[in-house]
Design a protein that fits this description.
With 148 residues, this protein is mainly alpha-helical. 57% of the residues lie in helices and 0% in strands. The longest helix has 20 residues. The radius of gyration is 21 Å and the shape is globular.
């Protein structure tokens, strides 16, 4: 074993990971945690189309949670959310796998609203869930501003 280690110093010795290899882009492929793990994100700049689509969807999600249950505009917003949420998820989050940190937050919000609409129909979105959804959308907005 000693001769093998002399020829290949990294074999058989766990020194911990100091950096991401930059090759794998799969969600969860980076074993770095905390601040070191930030470099595991995508190294590509954020696509302006993604930013536009995501921002528009977040605006509709915010509007949905803010509308009164009897607002006539609510039915139209619900119809648009069903279509736009599914379209966004199929384009940027296939199978629930989202590469960007902002996308993960938006996917959680879309999934929550889609699930509520599927289970409860036109019932108002619960206030406690609405606060969590607003927080996720605020986090996503901040992450988009950082290019993440």
């Amino acid at each position: 074993m000693a001769s093998i280690q002399a020829q290949n110093p990294g074999i058989g010795v766990y020194g911990g990971l100091a950096a991401w290899d930059g090759e794998s882009a799969a969600v969860g492929s980076c074993s770095l945690a905390g601040e070191e793990g930030r470099e595991c994100g995508s190294t590509e700049p954020v696509n302006p189309k993604y930013v536009g689509d995501t921002t528009a969807l977040m605006d509709k999600l915010r509007l949905y949670t803010e509308l009164d249950a009897y607002d006539p505009q609510r039915m139209q917003v619900i119809k648009e959310l069903k279509v736009d949420g599914a379209a966004w998820a199929s384009k940027y989050a296939r199978g629930g796998a989202v590469r960007s940190a902002s996308g993960q937050k938006v996917y959680i919000a879309v999934d929550s609203v889609q699930g509520h609409l599927a289970s409860n129909g036109l019932a108002p979105y619960p206030a406690s869930k609405g606060r969590k959804l607003q927080q996720d959308l605020d986090d996503a907005t901040a992450l988009l501003a950082q290019g993440r």
